[in-house]
Amino acid sequence: xxxxxxxxxxxxxxxxxxxxxxxxxxxxxxxxxxxxxxxxxxxxxxxxxxxxxxxxxxxxxxxxxxxxxxxxxxxxxxxxxxxxxxxxxxxxxxxxxxxxxxxxxxxxxxxxxxxxxxxxxxxxxxxxxxxxxxxxxxxxxxxxxxxxxxxxxxxxxxxxxxxxxxxxxxxxxxxxxxxxxxxxxxxxxxxxxxxxxxxxxxxxxxxxxxxxxxxxxxxxxxxxxx
Length: 226
Hints:
Rossmann fold; nine-stranded mixed β-sheet
């Protein structure tokens, strides 16, 4: 039986573009919502994607950030089970915090499509022949620092740590949104519903290859095919 990827949605609607891509790639998935309650990882899961969200990891120790704390436990459980993890935006910051890094506020919000420079090759970047990709940014927090057990993989003009990996683990974080297409980004700026049309490789933004590579990695680990 094909094992699904577990999407943990950190705010309503923030998994819609991820679901669209996994459905397009014919990748089985399950969706659960993070609402502050204790979370578990079903035994059949092949990997985990942590979505973005408007919450701030800088407030995780306060009452305002209490809903985020169960996700740190989920990351510990994923590490114990050697499960691949992909954290996106808020998920990236949560993974960095869990690993021992520091999240801070940026001087100004970053929003729009931006060129990302790849500094190191890694499994989630295997689809990129050059050292550049275009990804959608929508955040005002960032990872200011990471411990020695993490390696920075990508950067941009607006953010020094656009992507990282926990060393000796299949656990990646990306600050940008690899699930967002050009049409999605336009809708976000126009405050319109997401069109959620299929991604068209070659004529659209190339960041979704990260989702595809992560799904294929989970498949290889599972020993099945999608």
